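TICKET: design request
STATUS: open
ATTACHED STRUCTURE:
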């Protein structure tokens, strides 16, 4: 009935506002917090993602939910002057931090910055050879819609890579990780960024995210084929890949 629908609508708007508040708040400290929270391991997960992308010179790449641009920076070097990388993010604070960082590192000429929602990508069909979304999908309200939108703008034969927190395969790790994310993470957020609440949200969003097999099914529903995943660090993170037929 309308009551139920009305309630859902409020919940959806709440999530969108919450995600926007979190990333406006953490943007300036985002890179520092990433290194602290993961002990630097996020760099390895990202490098692995780049290696699995089969990106080549001349390719067009979309890094959606690209934030402060770690993947974009690497892609921009790999596609070279004949290629192009679009760093897209819904949040202009994150986008600004990313643009400043990449410009300071001399990555200019083949990067475009676009404010966009992953659910409604503002690009023509069949545009990109490679699309990445790293630690972004769990923040998206309608994940199925976002995956379909990514599939639409991929070229046939193009590859989608989803790097995201997942379900650990090791029960001991799982317990330690839960304790870590719900106590230490907000504490570090408070100490370093003066914001415990945002990091509590991040921990919560990690716990709520679909597990490996569920996400695989969602990617297949979006029309991708040869969907596979690899667990990284005992499944704390998983890298899913799929091809547009
Ligand atoms: N990809 C970067 C990385 O791995 O360091 C940034 C990840 S950060 C945890 C998540 C990013 O997703 C934020 O920059 C946030 O603004 C963005 N985001 C959240 N919802 C989004 C949406 N619906 N569409 C596009 N970007 C979104």
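STATUS: resolved
RESOLUTION: sequence designed for all positions
ATTACHED SEQUENCE:
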């Amino acid at each position: 009935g309308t009551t139920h629908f009305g309630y859902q609508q409020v919940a959806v708007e709440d999530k969108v506002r919450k995600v926007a508040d979190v990333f406006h708040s953490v943007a300036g400290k985002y890179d520092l917090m990433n290194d602290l929270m993961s002990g630097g391991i996020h760099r390895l997960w990202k490098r692995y993602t780049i290696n699995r992308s089969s990106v080549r010179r001349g390719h067009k790449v979309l890094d959606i939910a690209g934030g402060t641009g770690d993947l974009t920076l690497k892609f921009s070097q790999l596609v070279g002057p004949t290629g192009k990388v679009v760093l897209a993010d819904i949040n202009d604070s994150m986008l600004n931090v990313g643009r400043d960082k990449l410009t300071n590192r001399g990555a200019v000429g083949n990067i475009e910055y676009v404010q966009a929602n992953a659910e409604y990508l503002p690009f023509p069909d069949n545009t990109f050879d490679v699309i990445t979304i790293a630690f972004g999908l769990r923040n998206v309200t309608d994940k199925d819609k976002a995956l379909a939108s990514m599939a639409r703008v991929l070229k046939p034969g193009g590859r989608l890579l989803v790097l995201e927190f997942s379900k650990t395969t090791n029960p001991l790790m799982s317990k330690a990780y839960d304790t870590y994310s719900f106590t230490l993470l907000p504490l570090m957020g408070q100490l370093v960024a003066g914001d415990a609440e945002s990091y509590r949200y991040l921990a919560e969003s990690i716990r709520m995210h679909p597990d490996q097999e569920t996400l695989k099914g969602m990617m297949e529903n979006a029309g991708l084929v040869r969907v596979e995943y690899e667990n990284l660090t005992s499944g704390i993170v998983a890298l899913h890949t799929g091809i547009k037929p």
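CLOSING REMARK: The chain has nine helices and seven strands. The mean pLDDT is 92.
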